[in-house]
Amino acid sequence: MIHDVRRAATIAIGNELIEGCHSDTNSGEIAARLAELGIEVAQFTVLGDDRDRLVRAFRELTAEFQLVIATGGLGPTLDDITREAAAEAAGVALEMDPAALAHLRELWAQRGRPMPKTNERQAWIPATAQSMENSAGTAPGFRLWIDGGVLAVLPGPPREMRAMLEGALLPWVRATCGVGPATCVRSLYLCGLPESQFADDVGPWMARGENPRVDVTAKSGVLSVRVVGRMASQEEATAITEARLNELAKRFERHVFSCEDPRLEVALVRALGERQWRISFAESCTGGGMAQRLTDVSGSSAVFRESWVTYANESKQLRLGVPAALLEAHGAVSREVAEAMAVGALRESGADLALSVTGIAGPDGGTPAKPVGLVWFGVAERDRVRSEERRFLQHGRESIRAFAVHAGLELAWRTVRGQPWPKR
């Protein structure tokens, strides 16, 4: 039994991580889930497939932290050496786990193929370890005591890591590790508000010693707000957390689009469904990005009509009926053309709402009058058409396109909800 675990560490393992081919997304997810148990992840480490470095890291971290969670290096090939390094760090040999071997053989049998001999390596774990079943893949994980701490080793692929974390490791931590004070974590997701403005308005609620504490991160136009409360009992932790969450929701009512899902497109689909509206898109610089985001949402078929990617001026004329005279007089990136695109999409689709976007994503094509990052949006309803200009920072073509997609979805969401567009 490990008593009163408060601090932990993670190790992300793989040459592909230190070579920059992939990013470590596992550690952040693990830290968020442990935080809900009152366990702070105080250190992230990324290492390559180097046995000596891994052995040293396993020993040093388990001496400092009672819980160390490693991900990666459990594959069948010779460069997957996490299990060997863990066994060496603990001073034990590797042993075949019969249950893990049977699981591997069953998976291959389900595929109708014989299991390669190489895959047997995945069934070997340190002799004193406790195996953790992999319900989403082949490699089993394990928990191993090294000196004063526990090393838990999970697969590297995020889907497999997540399944083992939720299905095997966290239940064991709750039952065994005597975790700290009861913790409640709640979230809010906001749009149309700068992170700095949010921080100014929240003030001391974001201080490190505050309970409940408010944290915020910004990504692609969305503010993800977490409220974390800790008390002696779960009931008390839930009460103070939800009280603070309700205060935030009231204070930022015009900007909150969800307390469950950080995807603005999910909120848009829900809002369209509530009003029984259907939407269409006419896109130029975003290349169909708004339609893709919306149709990624389950149930979007009930609210989405159709979409056009009218990149060329000829397509804007032919598909959407944009007058040639408008294009000649004002250019494709203009208020007039954005509104005409939206009106054309509304007319051709028979939708209740149509959204258009036309802009200069770069890196070429900008002028002093119309620089890279200039984007115009048109929003057409049955009785009116409106437009909005945005100028996004020149941080690259993909960044401009991503922010344009988000801004378009936000304008559509606010329009369906009958909310005023944010002032810029």
Main β-sheet, in a few words?
6 strands, mixed
> In CATH, what is the class of the largest domain?
Alpha Beta
Per DSSP, what share of the residues sits in E-state strands of 2 or more residues?
15-25%
Look at the helices and sheets and give the structural class: alpha/beta
Number of individual domains: 3
Write out the CATH superfamily name of the largest domain.
Answer: MoaB/Mog-like domain
What's the helical proportion of residues?
Answer: 25-40%
Strand order of the largest sheet: 2-1-3-8-7-6
Task: Tell me what the structure shows.
Strands 2-1-3-8-7-6 form a six-stranded mixed sheet, sandwiched between helices. Strands 14-13-15-16-17 form a five-stranded mixed sheet, sandwiched between helices. The mean pLDDT is 94. It folds into three domains: 7-176, Molybdenum Cofactor Biosythetic Enzyme, Chain A, CATH 3.40.980; 182-258, 2-Layer Sandwich (Alpha-Beta Plaits); 264-417, Maf protein. With 424 residues, it is α/β, with parallel strands linked by helices. α2 (26-35) runs parallel beside α6, α3 packs across α4 and α9 runs parallel beside α14 (397-417). It contains 14 helices and 17 strands. β7 and β8 form a beta hairpin. The protein has helices at 15-18, 26-35, 51-64, 82-90, 98-110, 158-176, 195-202, 234-251, 264-275, 289-295, 313-320, 324-330, 335-349, 397-417, and strands at residues 7-13, 40-47, 67-71, 94-96, 124-126, 130-132, 141-146, 149-154, 182-191, 213-219, 222-231, 256-258, 279-283, 304-309, 353-359, 374-381, 385-391.
